[in-house]
């Protein structure tokens, strides 16, 4: 089986399912680590409804869906913050699909999408407990920097100059 990565409308069924899986995983990880419980289902639904991903729609954003063997398996999004800076967000690969190279392919495709939007650099934020993500970004040439935003859960910020 092989990976394919393509732009996807932010309101497609595949995008919605991947956003739900992403948010559930990162939210549950946070609450289990800090409060010993999973995300409250009502909170999960409120957050999903409040964060539709609309900022990833053209003309200033792109949502990419990775499919493995034709089935949606991961996502990544980029959105312009200004004329030369884009933000990488929603990088996610289903747990059962990890270790097959999809995350690096997604980030590479997101970098290309950011270039197509006119970005010269890509920034992102992540949390301390998302160790695999931080290792991926470092391996792909991202440099840890000071904060570029004040996102509530951000603990690490990265930047990469796009060539």
TrEMBL record:
Gene3D superfamilies: 3.40.630.30
The UniProt record lists the keyword Nucleotide-binding: no
Keywords: Acyltransferase, Transferase
Transmembrane segments: none
InterPro entries reported for this sequence: Acyl_CoA_acyltransferase, Bact_Acetyltransf, GNAT_dom
Keyword presence, Ion transport: no
Domain of life: Bacteria
Residue stretches making up the N-acetyltransferase domain: 17-163
Protein name (database record): GNAT family N-acetyltransferase
Organism of derivation: Streptomyces longisporus
């Amino acid at each position: 089986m092989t990976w394919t990565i393509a732009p996807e409308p932010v309101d497609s069924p595949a995008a919605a399912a991947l956003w739900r899986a992403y948010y559930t995983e990162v939210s549950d990880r946070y609450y289990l680590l800090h409060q010993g419980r999973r995300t409250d289902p009502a909170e999960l639904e409120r957050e999903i409804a409040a964060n539709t991903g609309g900022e990833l729609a053209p003309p200033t954003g792109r949502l990419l869906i990775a499919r493995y063997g034709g089935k949606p398996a991961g996502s990544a999004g980029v959105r312009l913050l200004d004329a030369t800076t884009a933000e990488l967000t929603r990088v996610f690969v289903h747990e059962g699909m990890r270790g097959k190279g999809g995350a690096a392919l997604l980030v590479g495709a997101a970098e290309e999408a950011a270039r197509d939007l006119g970005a010269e650099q890509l920034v992102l934020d992540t949390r301390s407990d998302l160790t695999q993500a931080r290792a991926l970004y470092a391996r792909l040439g991202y440099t840890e920097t000071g904060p570029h935003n004040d996102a509530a859960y951000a603990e690490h910020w990265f930047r990469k100059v796009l060539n």
